[in-house]
Automatic annotation (TrEMBL):
It comes from Micromonospora peucetia. InterPro entries: PhoX, TAT_signal. This is PhoX family phosphatase. It holds the Pfam family PhoX.
Amino acid sequence: RPDGGVGNGALTFKPVPPNTLDSLVVPNGYDHAVVIRWGDPVVPGAPEFDVRAQTAAAQARQFGYNNDFVGVLPLDGRRRALLVVNHEYTNEDLMFPGFTSQDALTVEQLRIAMAAHGMSVVELERVDGAGQWRPVTKGRRPYNRRVTALATKFELTGPAAGSAHLRTAADPKGRTVVGTLNNCAGGVTPWGTVLSGEENFNQYFVGGDGAPEADKPKLARYGITTTTRHPSGSRKWERADERFDLAKHPNEANRHGWIVEIDPYDPESRPRKHTALGRFKHEGANVIVAKGGQVVAYMGDDERFDYLYKFVSDKKFMKGNSRVARRHNLTLLESGTLYVARLDETSAGEIDGSGRLPSDGAFNGRGRWIRLVGGNRSYVDGMTAADVLTFTRLAGDRVGATKMDRPEDVEPSLLTGKVYVALTNNTDRGRAGKPAADEANPRNLNKHGQVLELVEDRGDNAGEAFAWSLPIVAGDPTDPSTFFAGYDKTKVSPISCPDNVAFDATGNLWISTDGNALGSNDGLFATAVEGPERGHLKQFLTVPVGAEACGPFITGDNRSVFVAVQHPGELSGASVERPASNWPDGDYAKPGVVVTWRLDGGPIGS
Ligand code: FEO
Ligand code: CA
Ligand code: CA
Ligand code: CA
């Protein structure tokens, strides 16, 4: 570690100023390149992309749309790696020339959209001399793989698998699901698999008005409309596949909203949906091995006033890369204990919703993990384990979990065990009939969000009590309601709507944003989290017009930063013919993954 302290590596790059440029901007002394973009080949033999002649069969072999999570896993020493990417959703208006409305899409276009969802696994090779990487898609590439909403089969595991909630006409055993929906963030596990969160799955379903009356409150708690057949914003997939019609198949929605695990090193393996980690609008999941050997997954439910969760495995992590260890570790997320967070306040009487710092000088407090399910046993009155795991939001409501400002990515630092939570925003906080500000969510009508740090008691990630604080309350630093861990606010970059978090090899915290409410483009930021530089937040890059910055992923050698540029040009009225962004190729907009490196080959950030 070049600068000694963990989480305290000096970040010496010159920050990128806020801007509205239609390009990706990196600091002086850095370069960047597009690694892969929508339509590029993934599976060898994929047809060349032609926006005017696209088919579902082609899309199912090409890189999907709206890349979000990015993971880079070692393959063969320092020269080869596997890139694993989520494809969260589709912008049909930016994908199909002549688009007029979702209703006017052909069934083949709906199937293209389904094939553009899911995940991609792509072999990468290092470009000589620097931190640049490029995809390898020619020749025999056994790892290259597409997972889609259209055709990929998933196995359900854990206590709710096979339960009555998950059985359908097509799958009477309730154990096999076709497709994954709205895969947002995720994480790389210590045993070399990838976890992916199924987030806003509600938007794919219609016919909630025709679902059984007893199901309606549960559907509604998950954002599925139960009063009209065609809720606004629905994707109309029921025209291509009737399982998206809840009037016909009311349990199909229960088969989405899980954490998915995929083994990129075993291309023949069937990916799994782990019911033991609960069902909600999963942003993602990130794992750390606890002192006692159990693995702990931290997770957020990205909805206004929803909750923060963790899962602790029953079994212990087995070190090493032997077949026996790998096979064992692949079962770790199938049984364990699911908890939801309750945060206590130290300065509750002083919180007025303005974001003013309490007299003790900190937004902080203590908290407890409330047990919901352990193995097959429910700890929630009136709910079975399968009930709690399938309708986890209702369980959180019953036990009095703390209603947060949209928990997005939640990630433990593997160097310190401290956990960082991106709370992106909550413009409903404090409105009539809605919960008011509390110390962890200290601003009403919260446009800019905050970052929460959680420190488990005795450094035990498997424990049930913790301390928390807010190192960053986001916004323009000239806004008195912002906070940057007490650092000189004249020296920090403005930030709004933190979404994804990651760590570099020295333990610095990297934060990407979605929906910058300050009016400039989204981007990627970095700050030390320990020592005198804690809170010295600097903007590392900005993404093009209309895009959010996803990923991010910093390679273990600290030489490459990967970022997913999601939904460039996503502005109302934009189209293939009249793009709002020309990124990355100068014509119409395409989502793509970018790698950034230092021109002199040195470590990123320093
Ligand atoms: Fe898909 Fe919560 O961001
Ligand atoms: Ca306090
Ligand atoms: Ca996100
Ligand atoms: Ca977001």
